[in-house]
Amino acid sequence: MIVPQPCARCGGEIPPERLEAIPETRVCVACSKEMGGEFTVVATPERISKEGSLKKNYGGYSTQKIRRPIKPKSSE
Ligand SMILES: [Zn+2]
Asked: Among 1, 19, 46, 60, which residue's Cβ finds the most Cβ atoms within 10 Å?
């Protein structure tokens, strides 16, 4: 069962459907849109071949989600 969480930006309620889709979210849908997205995704190439190896690196990219700073709506 998902407990609704208060939005870190406007204090409103984050709908359980959003928490279910993005459990790490801290803001509601409207605030996320206003911020231009809550997270920035950074892709880093994975290095799987050993040093000096002629094998090509077929590793993919590991993605990292970085949370944007959340400013309270009232201070903007
Ligand atoms: Zn909000």
From this structure: 19
